[in-house]
TrEMBL record, chain A:
Keywords: Endoplasmic reticulum, GPI-anchor biosynthesis, Membrane, Transmembrane, Transmembrane helix. The chain crosses the membrane at residues 9-29, 41-62, 83-106, 112-132, 153-171, 183-209. One of its GO terms (cellular component) is endoplasmic reticulum membrane. This is Phosphatidylinositol-glycan biosynthesis class F protein isoform X3. It holds the Pfam family PIG-F. It comes from Erinaceus europaeus (Western European hedgehog). It is a multi-pass membrane protein. Pathway: Glycolipid biosynthesis; glycosylphosphatidylinositol-anchor biosynthesis. InterPro entries: GPI_biosynthesis_protein_Pig-F. One of its GO terms (biological process) is GPI anchor biosynthetic process. It comes from the Eukaryota.
TrEMBL record, chain B:
It is a multi-pass membrane protein. It comes from the Eukaryota. Its main location: endoplasmic reticulum. GO terms for molecular function: transferase activity. This is GPI ethanolamine phosphate transferase 2 isoform X1. It is found in: Endoplasmic reticulum membrane. Belongs to the PIGG/PIGN/PIGO family. PIGG subfamily. It comes from Erinaceus europaeus.
Length: 219, 971
């Protein structure tokens, strides 16, 4: 593993963070009354689109994983379609989990679903970009000692930190402060975003500090 | 002395219960209460004392005022009226205070300075303790004697506008009322306009005797903007205008009616510099109390500083003013200036009435009342009074008689002051000394438990309790001496009136011995651990496996829950915490299962079933894989994969069964839908289905006799509910609802039968040790007997809670815990978490009002205290208890693993006592919090009850463990 790899990782992550910041400030130029809290759904959509786009671009530019041998067009198309289906499935999956966690079943469906979408954007989209639609590889990455490159390692860290952010984001909901951001699912989406950003920052640093101990099977 | 970790834990919890009991006694001092208060007999008023010939004045004196208007302004601080703000914003009131026909006082409110207890204090004259809230569990209505009750009994017409609390406290007392809610703190205009809008009409009408207005706006401004906000001034001038209106209207009325009326302006509590209240700072405690009436004479140029009085003095003054008997539990003394203008004989009569009432209360609440100085003074004054009346009746008024009267009056006032002081001291404060003693005991036990974790969870599951070492004895005697010295010093200081001092010396000494022994045990455990730690560090390198994610979650969840208890909203919504934790737990288990299933064999083929991985050398790289799911067959494997999702779905369903807590309690839920009379058929079908499933799940491991008993018992449960009218029977329509006593007793018989067979099987297994199956059956029968009891006691719409708990337990046992091979500690904590979640699934919450007291009457003709309390306790804690008993069942079925049961007992004790111990520290530090009464105190009671239940469970564990070890040894 070389330091250049880590540097590349850092730059891509900074770009991702930048895209999130852009999603907060750019829409207010075009849309009236735009604010993250009040027009939360709009922001969620925009943020999701921005992050997905930047992830795709980075994937195409950086190409972190070794390109597969077969590269026929039809293969690529099926792969892309599969990715879309996986993304949708993950959205529904997250939605179900939120409902199981206690989100209202009927009211606020749209809010809950867009929350599921943004969480999928933070977790599933990078997974799809990096690992492709391959459940076994996902399970491998997310079990202990299963990572094989710094990209996978950083993927693991960002995903777990977004989940943790979401998890901690639910904490303020029962408090009686009557703040606008305590409404479902705003605190959770904010938590997820913060967790994702934190993961993006932490993972290159963590890999840099532990570069001596980290040995990957394939490197 | 060597002890098994199970019995050690049980002992610890029992001691902890004792400590908590002492703490609770200090935290909730018993209130001064007249024993006859519950009956409210109309007693004949005390006649005027007379020597020889009886006085002809036996009736109560006539009322001083024909009408009384009470204007209560919430959070009115004394300097808002008497200070510079008052001069600026309340000109009319200041004028009245300085020059008008009014008496002004600074009334001191006792903490907790919160509205509801303050209203009680104003109207009953007593100092309410939290115990009162507990005593009348379901109805918040005030059962005590109060001015309003007396006024209503005397046929006075009372009108009330303002804070809803009054309407709850005094239902049916008002001929007309309009309650405003204090829920929206940010509203400070509308809430007061809703009161004022009635004013014109009511003042014009004049067909009332008592008018009470409670304005909340000032308090709301205080909470949001603080006491120095300019809005306060606006509000004060608004209030001044209202007072002016009322006063002028009263004056014009008086001119017509020729009898004086009384206008009272008061506050319930003050406001701290930050604008909140609840604690005992001077700003929160001091409130103005102004009595305005044309009958008060005021010499021009007579400037008086407002005198300091107690808030409780208002009740007796109002009673006298309205010509009513004084409320029985009042500890207040009459505000003398009110009766100053009356003739001497009447003044003495009023003072006599007040002192008689106080001395009666003293007799009932203090055993050694005759030694009290106030009582002696009272006796002396009464004798003098008798002589004075004799003189008065013999010769008409003279200067000598007046002089004598003035002397007697002073005597009376002294007696009343002393009596009132000694009475209010009984309840006034938290009894810090008892609280400290209790806390010390609890904390020492917790420290002991924490320190003995490594030993208790070792494979031997035994630990050394160093009771007789020499170091121990020296420290012990020293500690004991020091503690006794402290005890003597604290108890002989005159100010205190603590519970712990009123105990006999022997008991106190016993507690001292306990405290010092525990301290020594803690110290020796500490030193041992220190030495051990050093040795171990030398001997072995970095051993121990890494913690699994599940362990981490369990640890973090427990810590997080304990920390959350410091916030009032997290206590109100504690169910959310548990639901959140159990859902996360399910997901973590799900992750573990899937990893095991898909990766367990392919990644590390050599490590199948390696629990040995604990001792493996390179801990960093080892995959601590559990026994994989290979042992399960195909369909079972699928069940294992699906079970976390089934459990999650069950929990989600249960969650929408009963909405509890505060913020979302009003949301529609399935429970309300089912209990509404339109859906009786659905409820009946559901209950029948639930009872059938309960039978199917429970009968698997019972013996044949108990199986039959179980079926009949469950049938009986349905019949009982049908008899009480909450369920339908297809063959009988429109039957009058009965109490269902026969049916309920029918079920009780089967419950007792099943429990008895279970106990017999357990005993049998102890005698004939060779048969471990017998023990499992016996335990399961105990468990199903309790489940049947729960089915009887839980409301029909709560039967799904029981069924799903049985279902989840079955799924967990066969597809998660057994195949994945969790150790006893993990399984215990999971049981505890689910038990807590089920406590809330039942519809419980941390407020006292959700306790279902009707359970205490199931199968009983009349109220019998002990069975009712036991039944209510069991029904409330059915979830945690059933899960705990299931834990015993689960662990005893795994006979191979030796110390599992004692480990489980130890963990259970630890996991339950940790929150309690931390909570009592939290609650002590928050004792002046605004919500101490409404949120923290009920939670404290729940925690205490929970600890008691835990102690019982731990004792049961130990008993089972003993029989287990004995059979193991002899086999
Ligand atoms: Zn108040
Ligand atoms: Zn308030």
């Amino acid at each position: 593993m070389k330091d250049t790899d880590i540097k590349r990782l850092l730059y891509t992550h900074l770009l991702c963070i930048f895209s999130i910041i852009l999603s907060i400030f750019i829409p207010s130029l075009f849309l009236e009354n735009f604010s993250v809290l009040e027009t939360h759904l709009t922001w969620l959509c925009i943020c999701s689109v921005f992050v997905t786009a930047i992830n795709l671009i980075l994937y195409l530019v950086v190409k972190p994983n070794t390109p597969s041998k077969r590269s026929s067009l039809s293969y690529k198309v099926t792969r892309f379609l599969k990715c879309c289906i996986y993304f949708l499935l993950s959205c529904f999956f997250f939605h179900i989990i939120f409902v199981l966690y206690g989100a209202p079943l009927i009211e606020l469906v749209l809010e809950t679903f867009s929350f599921a979408v943004i969480l999928s954007t933070f977790t599933t989209v990078p997974c799809l970009c990096l690992l492709g639609p391959n459940i076994k590889a996902w399970l491998r990455v997310f079990s202990r000692n299963g990572v094989t490159s710094i990209w996978e390692n950083s993927l693991q860290i960002t995903t777990i930190s977004s989940f943790l952010g979401t998890w901690f984001g639910a904490f303020p909901i029962p408090l009686d402060w009557e703040r606008p951001w305590q409404v479902w699912p705003i605190s959770c989406t904010l938590g997820a975003t913060l967790g994702y950003v934190a993961g993006l920052i932490i993972s290159p640093l963590w890999i840099y500090w532990n570069r001596k101990q980290l040995t990957y099977k394939n490197n | 002395m060597r002890l098994g970790s199970g019995s050690f834990a049980a002992c610890c919890v029992v001691v902890e219960v004792l400590g908590l009991a002492v703490f609770l006694r200090g935290f909730f001092p018993a209130p001064v209460r007249s024993t006859s208060s519950s009956e409210h007999r109309a007693e004949a008023p005390v006649p005027e004392p007379a020597a020889g010939a009886s006085s002809n004045w036996t009736k109560l004196p006539p009322p001083l005022f024909s009408k009384v208007v009470i204007v209560l302004i919430d959070a009115l601080r004394d300097d808002f009226v008497f200070g510079s703000k008052g001069v600026k914003f309340m000109p009319y009131t200041s004028y009245l205070v300085e020059k008008g026909a009014a008496h002004s006082f600074v009334a001191e409110a006792k903490p907790p300075t919160v509205t509801m207890p303050r209203i009680k204090a104003l109207m009953t004259g007593s100092l309410p303790g939290f115990v009162d809230v507990v005593r009348n569990l379901n109805s918040p209505a005030l059962l005590e004697d109060s001015v309003l009750r007396q006024a209503k009994a005397a046929g006075k017409r009372i009108i009330f506008y303002g804070d809803e609390t009054w309407v709850k406290l005094f239902p049916k007392h008002f001929v007309e009322y309009d309650g405003t809610t204090s829920f929206f703190v940010s509203d400070y205009t509308e809430v007061d306009n809703n009161v004022t809008r009635h004013l014109d009409k009511v003042l014009k009408r004049g067909d009332w005797d008592v008018l009470i207005l409670h304005y909340l706006g000032l308090d709301h401004i205080g909470h949001v903007f603080g006491p120095s906000s300019p809005l306060i001034g606006h509000k004060l001038s608004e209030m001044d205008g209202i007072l002016t209106r009322i006063h002028t209207s009263l004056l014009s009325e008086e001119r017509k009616a020729l009898s004086p009326s009384l206008l009272v302006l008061c506050g319930d509590h003050g406001m701290s510099e930050t604008g909140s209240h609840g604690a005992s700072s001077l700003e929160e405690v001091n409130t103005p109390l102004i009595l305005i009436s044309s009958s008060f004479e005021r010499k021009p140029g007579d400037i008086r500083q407002p005198k300091h009085v107690q808030q409780t003095d208002l009740a007796v003054t109002l009673a006298v003013g309205l010509g009513l008997p004084i409320p029985k539990n009042s500890v207040g003394s009459l505000l003398f200036p009110v009766i100053e203008g009356k003739p001497m004989r009447e003044q003495l009569r009023f003072l006599h009435l007040n002192s008689v009432q106080l001395s009666k209360l003293l007799q009932e609440s203090v055993p050694s009342y005759e030694k009290e100085p106030g009582f002696e003074q009272f006796k002396v004054s009464e004798r003098l009074h008798r002589n004075w009346i004799k003189l008065y009746l013999e010769e008409n008024s003279s200067a000598a008689l007046l002089n004598l009267g003035v002397k007697l009056r002073r005597q009376y006032l002294d007696a009343i002051r002393t009596l009132s002081l000694s009475l209010s001291r009984q309840v006034a404060q938290y009894d810090i000394y008892s609280m400290v003693v209790g806390t010390v005991v609890v904390l020492e036990v917790l420290a002991l438990l924490l320190l003995s974790i490594p030993q208790a969870l070792s494979n031997k599951a035994e630990l050394e309790v160093p009771l007789l070492s020499p170091m121990f004895s020296l420290l012990f005697y020293l500690m004991f001496l020091v503690l006794s010295a402290i005890h003597v010093i604290v108890c002989t200081s005159t100010e205190s009136s603590c519970y712990f001092c009123s105990l006999s010396w022997l008991t106190a000494a016993g507690v001292m011995v306990l405290i010092s022994a525990l301290l020594c045990a803690v110290v020796s455990a500490l030193s041992e651990m220190f030495v051990d730690g050093k040795l171990q560090r030398k001997n072995t390198g970095p051993s121990n496996s890494r913690w699994s994610e599940l362990d981490l979650l369990i640890l973090l969840g427990t810590m997080g829950h304990v920390l959350s208890l410091g916030a009032s909203s997290f206590i109100e919504e504690e169910h959310q915490t548990w639901y959140f934790l159990t859902s996360t737990l399910c997901l973590a288990l799900c992750h573990e299962i899937y990893r095991n299933c898909f990766l367990g064999n392919c990644c590390e083929p050599g490590l199948g079933g390696a629990v040995v991985a604990l001792q493996d050398e390179d801990a960093g790289k080892v995959h601590k894989s559990h026994t994989p799911l290979d042992s399960l067959r195909g369909s079972e494997k699928w069940m294992a994969l699906a079970s976390p999702w089934v459990i999650l779905t069950c929990c989600r369903l249960l969650r929408s069964l009963n909405q509890t807590g505060v913020q979302w309690a009003h949301r529609p839920d399935l429970g309300h839908w089912l209990t509404s009379s339109d859906h009786k058929a659905a409820l009946s079908a559901l209950s029948a289905f639930c009872l059938v499933v309960t039978f199917v799940l429970l009968q698997r491991r019972c013996s044949r006799t108990s199986r039959v008993a179980m079926a009949l018992g469950l049938l009986g449960v349905y019949c009982y509910r049908a008899a009480t009218g909450s369920l339908l029977l297809p063959w009988q329509r429109d039957k009058a609802a009965s109490k269902g006593i026969v049916e309920a007793r029918f079920v009780y018989i089967f419950i007792l039968g099943i429990l008895f067979t279970g106990a017999r099987d357990l005993l049998k297994s102890q005698v004939a040790a060779a048969n471990p199956k017998c023990k499992a059956v016996g335990l399961w029968e105990m468990y199903s007997g309790l489940a049947l009891l729960a089915a009887l006691l839980l409301r029909p719409h709560n039967l799904p809670v029981l069924v799903l708990s049985l279902l989840i337990q079955t799924l967990m046992t066969s597809f998660i815990w057994k195949p994945l091979g969790h150790d006893a500690a993990e399984v215990t904590v999971m049981h505890y978490w689910f038990g807590q979640a089920f406590f809330y699934f039942q519809g419980n919450s941390n407020s006292i009002s959700t306790v279902d007291v009707s359970v205490g009457f199931v199968g009983l003709d009349s109220y019998m205290e002990i069975p009712a309390v036991l039944l209510t306790a069991f029904a409330t804690y059915a979830g945690p208890v059933l899960w705990a008993i299931h834990l015993v069942n689960f662990l005893s079925s795994e006979t191979c693993r030796g110390p599992a049961m004692s480990h489980a007992c130890f963990c259970y004790a630890l996991v339950c006592s940790f929150p309690v111990s931390v909570y009592i520290i939290l609650v002590t530090s928050l004792r002046y919090h605004l919500f101490i009464w409404s949120v923290f105190s009920p939670k404290l009671l729940y925690e205490g009850m929970h600890l008691l239940i835990t102690a019982a469970v731990c004792l049961f564990f130990t008993a089972m463990d003993q029989t287990g070890t004995r059979s193991r040894i002899s086999s």
